Amino acid sequence: MKTFLLALLALVSTAVAADKIKVLIVDGQNNHDWRTITPLLKTIIEESGIFTVQVDTAPGKGVENWQPKFSDYAVVVSNYNGELWSPSTQEAFEKFVSGGGGFVSVHAADNAFPEWKAYNEMIGVGGWGGRSEKSGPYLRWRQNTWTPDPTPGRGGSHGSQHEFLLQNRAPEHPIMAGLPAAFLHRRDELYDRLRGPAKNVAVLASAMSPKEKGGSGEEEPLLMAIPFGQGRVFHSALGHGVEAVKCVAFAVTLQRGIEWAATGKVTMKVPAEFPDDKASKARP
Ligand code: ZN
Fold first, then answer.
1. How many whole angstroms from 9 Cα to the centroid of ligand 1?
2. Which domains are assigned to the chain?
3. With CB atoms 3.0 to 4.6 Å apart as the test, which of 40, 75, 215, 283 could cross-link to 209 if both were Cys?
């Protein structure tokens, strides 16, 4: 009887796991503390209840033989900013996303691979790594619309970390539907002056980068959705450190962005503790 019950339990949990969306986190190289951040991302993603999460960690040096099985998953979340992947891994990743897979870029993942054309099309805009006007335009908020700006200059910078107000720029988009018109995000780096191909980028949320904090003085796109072939990309420039990652606004937009990248829909309800424009909210 006990064996039977255990077998039944195993069968039920397998069935439940099979219904869940398979997420792969890639990490292993980053100028940020990925060893601390990846487990936090994994917890946030698993807590939604609709995902299973695996992590594939690249070697700290020498990635030529590293070949994650992207095609085993519905969506890949990158916490990786390091050596360029091998040609075969790049090819497998492009095929995965263009064939309908989901991709989610978190914070410094948009610093990665300035030389990889398809990757930059996926993230829309990125920073550092020698990015400049040669990488593509900035996206600037002009006359109530996001406008490519080819002005020469660096790609990627940020002022001092602070708490900031995110503006919901696409309340009709599945990721942003039901979220407030503006909501506070805990202390984080506010990436500014990102630039890239910037093709078909739907800016979901932006924040003013104040000059008095060393920023650009511009409204900066920080959450984005980008189609790539048959696939979907969610780009969150948020999440520098523990304080930022332990923010309800970061976590909920990440969960919703991952579901959308995987399926094109968002079924998750907006939690009651989601912040408004008066107070930011920390996760437990
Ligand atoms: Zn950072």
1. 43
2. 20-263 (3.40.50.880)
3. 215
